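Before any further analysis, we paired sequence with structure tokens, yielding the entry below:
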Amino acid sequence: MKIYKAVALLLTYPEQEWLQSVGELRAMVSTEIGQGRRAGRRLDGLFNHLQRGALIDVQETYVETFDRNAAHSLHVFEHTMGDSRERGEAMARLVEEYRRFGLEPTSLELPDFLPLFLEFLSLIPPEEVQGRLAGIEDVVETLHSRLADVCSPYAGAFDALMALTPGSALSGVSSPIRSMKRLFRRKQSGIRMGVPGTLTKEPPGGDSHRET
């Protein structure tokens, strides 16, 4: 769904270049159907904030919201694993998960950076998405609650993600830590996809171009 790509962009630092295209992004989201349409409607407040605010103001809001408040961190494993040794191991598994789909992270951000993970969801087959999104549902709900408590416009992004994750998808999952581990260990076929920016397409030859 395009909605994952949209939310990924909306959760990145506001730059003048992409803010000029917020109207087009909003129009794109409005064309979604089913769950995507319901999720898109929950982004209205964030779209309004980004379209109507001065650049310096929306940038300051982003920094205050995410960079200066660890409770709102956009790094998923920070909420589920903290600084434990397991976090490093989970990072490595997540990178391998990206690579199994022919996607190579090029961003300076850590692999568990939520916008990067959402971009990944926008590139893989739809039938592969729900389990992975369900694996971070507890984190999404926590961030939504914290941001809603302070009336942040960014609460809408997490409201949209919650609309994309049926409650039944987490049936039988007892912990977000275990669910994330299970997702990143699963073997996948080598589908080749890519997008400029945070994830790029691997060239023919698979892993031969990577240093070991």
Remarks:
- The longest strand covers residues 103-105.
